[in-house]
Specification:
Chains A, B: One of its GO terms (molecular function) is FAD binding. Chains A, B: Keywords: FAD, Flavoprotein, Oxidoreductase. Chains A, B: This is FAD-binding domain-containing protein. Chains A, B: InterPro entries: FAD-bd, FAD/NAD-bd_sf, Phe_hydrox_C_dim_dom, PHOX_C_sf, RIFMO-like, Thioredoxin-like_sf. Two copies of one chain form a homodimer. Chain A is of the alpha+beta class. Among the domains of chain A are: about 230 residues, FAD/NAD(P)-binding domain (3-Layer(bba) Sandwich); about 150 residues, Phenol hydroxylase, C-terminal dimerisation domain (Glutaredoxin). In chain A, helix 8 runs antiparallel to helix 9 and helix 9 packs antiparallel against helix 10. Chain A is globular and about 75 Å long. At the A-B interface, strand 3 of A face strand 3 of B.
Chain lengths: ~600, ~600
């Protein structure tokens, strides 16, 4: 994701190197869930189609619990929408991680001839400001036994839970691991369990299982992933452990030993027990695609970046290198890609001298420092949520005896959904998120606090709305005018006085154009929305520069979605919003 | 399109040869409009994404006429939706024909290593049943001066208005050409005409222009196509004629001479006159991408296929080879591709011996004969519509003096819209379209006659509806379960008694499964929709074979779209529909 974005932001193969110790994209296993916000981002990159067309779309989450009726053993308690936040893609997509990697790699090859350099391992990395202080990052890499030393301005470690980058720079994951052991299996199943095509949380008297329906495979059959809580006492003692997942393996004595003893047959037997009275088996031979056993742990690095002696951020870590957690909320791949999505444009601005400070090279750039502020805060929320979710989910509970009830679990799922969907993420105040309004909150043109439903809020992503374009009547998604090109956008919600050339609305728009013209060409675009003006009008009735600068980004904001209502803006007041290159709002005014 | 479909239906490079006299996909000009039904078909092939993402979407059609106010000269009379028929894609997409060719060629290369053999010309074709009567079609082709003779079971000529195939087989285009001369230009324009981003028909005192907004090009600017009615008296006499379009060039003395005299400057000057008082120019140098001058003619071949002495259809013509007309209704590329879409699956069934008759090889196959019946009828409608539309459009009219008023023109556009969108096409009764119900119309389970709005009708395509899948709650488009795989589909709209195992609904479903199991494997699939049954139910409460055969094609038909209402089916009655491999309905019951 980082390599793709930097290549698209214009870094050539001469300036950019992306290495991978693996020899190819992943063949099986590991992550499989794409959250709604990640799909929105993929759409801004033009790479969402294959997922929209071929992934499994999880629309619903079914909750099964121990039944009061002893013959039934388990019963369905409720079915909820999988995604509760309003989102352009109101489902979670599941598809094999290797395909996601291939989709991104194919797109990368449009921008970079070299693309990913595989079979290449990072041996070590250090900062050395002697020699060339502009290129102080020294990395030693090895391809098929041949070592090379690379000097660079910056380096990003997306090298997983055992990150060499993190270890070399003296950072460490801090936190605790829980003793729960889980097994995960990808397979085609033969079952009469009625909700096998829905995401399910099943809590039976025998334990817990999570079901993740997956994409259709080449045989025409459908994959299913199950996560199974493996009970403490493993009866069979076979030593074969499954392929390690990227999730953390904490080597604490007891649990490690127990994990090593888990076999595929243990996991399947436990699943059979939980699914009773329904039958549950792999369908025929060779239908188990992948399996693994892992422990749940939540750990976080206190720092996501390391600075040189001038205070300039030079080495960054993203993804599992800075936070590890359980896979069951479907967050790992998503949060990790969003780390890179947050950092990439900031790096591009810094490298190209486009931020106010980076135009003086050799000075610390506070733009880069927002990466740590924004993504550490996000990772902390993730860790906190995952700890709660895993604890509740691993606990054996039924409604009669458990300390945590079915209702509590559903409640936790619901409140976490804004965060897990990626649609409710909110960054704290910083250089790039101005939550305080100049002159005080009474000048805030936005009414309402239901930010998840779309009310404009600095630090959150701009919700998609459907708008009708003035120039041609095209019914468009506003997010399609916010592609991931690295540009900022001024979103102007004009007020009802727009047709009066002396109005605040018209004069403000002209001021906006004055200001944006002062920025380097093509770094700022305008999107302009108008409310119901109660009379027909043509281009001549509004400020002429609207057509000059924003002819194809000038929208009727009420015929389709009521953008003013959704965004919480009074049409008699209007509002201005600064949208960052990653679709998050910097400020409103 | 024909090559792509046959390759996807399983014909290997050993059995299939697709030649093109051109050396590459088209570089500029010619067709540019993709109608809603064509997009639906592209979606069933998984090749609609690039068009959805990057084409211009025409949502609205603006009608401009001479104004009563002499200062205004012209004024906008009305803005209509471009597509009035309900369609999955409610717009016409415009994008350069070369990109459409490239999209299909890229997809073809997934199925055929050889793909399109270019720089290869058909010299002649004939039927010769001596020798090998199974391969009676003899074609001589030439690649870079090297000639080869090919024997085949069948040949399809998609070789344009001057079709060698048509001429060699003694077929001819019949009909008349009109004397109107039109110029067409693709360019980036500089204009203050307010509707330049909408499709427009402009009738000014100086003549007529049609505006077709086009896709954004690499410079970030937007192409515009204009069709200009060139007045009879060409003032300048430059001899340079534009590149020929595929549209017919009828060599009738006067008009031909006049057409040859048309220059780009003539066309632009005429456009300037029509657009007055608005200014209208190419934007800077080198922004004219392509231009041509053509005459309008409507001609049709009475036969679309030629048979051997056994009565077996062996040689077919599709597209401009069998019908030519004006380009302004945006039909040429669409109708031509739909000719192939109609014929390809029939050829595949015949070649594979899958139709009842073709399993006896050497006998005429009435399945193949339906191509002529269905597509000739469609072409005749096209010709009739185009003649009216062109006459009206070429006529200089204003509301005071014209014999055809603005209202008439809009009315013609509206009534033609079902046909031009491709969504209202209806084939006549034939082997594949059974309009009469066994036992008489009183047994017809479908109520209503507004077929364009979705009422089930043999001979029309099945309208897309949104349905919620029982197995997983996925909110899907029914057309996504009708991919272009060559399969037939039984669409069963179950009735409200489904939960009673002895009901007509349950026993009928079981009979459907009995019958479909008798067909070769994978040639027939079932889609099953249920109405509101007024109580929760699970898989055990309905016929077991629904889950066995149609687990992932079993839908709630009322929570999202009301499928019963849209399709005109009484939920207390239910209905069965046979859907052909091309998405058209054969019969209902």
């Amino acid at each position: 994701m980082m390599g793709l974005l930097l290549a698209r932001y214009g870094l050539s193969d001469q300036s950019l190197l992306c290495i991978d110790s693996k020899s190819s994209a992943l063949k099986s296993g590991q992550a499989d869930g794409i959250q709604p916000r990640t799909l929105e981002v993929f759409k801004t990159l033009g790479i969402s189609d294959e997922i929209e067309n071929e992934a499994c779309h999880m629309w619903e989450f079914a909750f099964w619990n121990t039944s009061q009726d002893k013959l039934k053993i388990i019963e369905r308690k409720s079915v909820m929408p999988e995604v509760m936040a309003p989102a352009r893609f109101p489902y979670e997509a599941t598809i094999h991680q290797g395909r996601i990697e291939r989709i991104m790699e194919t797109d990368l090859s449009r921008y970079s001839k070299r693309a990913i350099v595989r079979n290449t391992k990072l041996l070590n990395v250090r900062l050395d400001e002697e020699g060339d202080p502009e290129f102080p990052v020294i990395a030693e890499i090895e391809t098929s036994g041949v070592k090379q030393t690379i000097r660079s301005k910056a380096l990003v470690g997306a090298d997983g839970a055992h990150s060499t980058v993190r270890q070399n720079l003296g950072l460490e994951l801090q936190g605790q691991s829980l003793d729960y052991i889980w097994g995960v299996v990808d397979m085609v199943v033969d079952t009469n369990f009625p909700d096998i095509r829905r995401r399910c949380a099943i809590h039976s008297p025998s334990g817990s299982v999570m079901v993740i329906p997956r994409e259709r495979i080449i045989t025409g059959e459908y994959l299913t992933r199950i996560y199974v809580h493996v009970p403490d006492a493993i009866k069979t003692g076979c030593d074969k452990a499954g392929t390690d997942s990227n999730s953390e393996e904490i080597q604490t004595g007891d649990a490690r030993l127990r994990r090593r003893k888990v076999t595929l047959e243990n996991i399947l037997q436990q699943a059979r027990d939980v699914f009773r009275p329904y039958h549950f088996e792999p369908k025929g031979d060779d239908t188990v695609d992948w399996w693994a056993a892992y422990q749940i742990g939540q750990r976080l690095s206190p720092e996501f970046a390391v600075r040189d002696s001038q205070g300039i951020d030079r080495v960054f870590i993203v993804g599992d290198a800075c936070h590890t957690h359980s896979p069951k909320a479907g967050q790992g791949m998503n949060v990790s890609m969003m780390d890179s999505y947050n950092l990439a444009w900031k790096l591009a601005y810094w490298i190209n001298g486009l931020s106010p400070i980076s135009s003086n090279s050799g000075k610390p750039d506070s733009l880069l420092q927002t990466y740590q502020i924004e993504r550490h805060s996000n990772a902390q929320q993730l860790i906190d949520f995952d700890r709660q979710f895993s604890t509740v989910f691993s606990g054996q509970f039924n409604e009669e005896e458990a300390s945590i009830s079915h209702a509590d679990f559903v409640e936790l799922f619901n409140t976490g959904n804004g965060f897990t969907s990626g649609c409710g993420v909110e960054y704290p105040s910083n250089l790039l998120v101005l939550k305080d309004f100049p002159g005080g909150d009474c000048f805030n043109p936005v009414q309402g606090t239901n930010y998840l439903a779309g009310i404009l809020r600095p630090g959150r992503r701009l919700l998609n709305v459907k708008l009708k374009r003035f120039a041609d009547g095209w019914q468009r998604d506003i997010q399609d005018d916010l592609p991931s090109t690295g540009r900022f956008c001024i979103l102007a919600l004009a007020s009802s006085d727009l047709l009066d050339p002396e109005s605040i609305s018209a004069t403000t728009l002209n001021k906006v154009f004055d200001i944006t013209q002062q920025f380097p060409a093509n770094t700022v675009e305008e999107i302009i929305i108008y409310p119901n003006l109660r009379q027909p009008f043509s281009w001549e009735d509004i400020p002429a520069r609207v057509k000059v600068h924003a002819e194809m980004r000038f929208y009727n904001g009420y015929d389709l979605d009521d953008a003013y209502k959704i965004y919480g803006v009074d049409p008699s007041q209007g509002a201005l919003v600064v949208v960052r290159p990653d679709g998050f709002m910097r400020q409103g005014q």
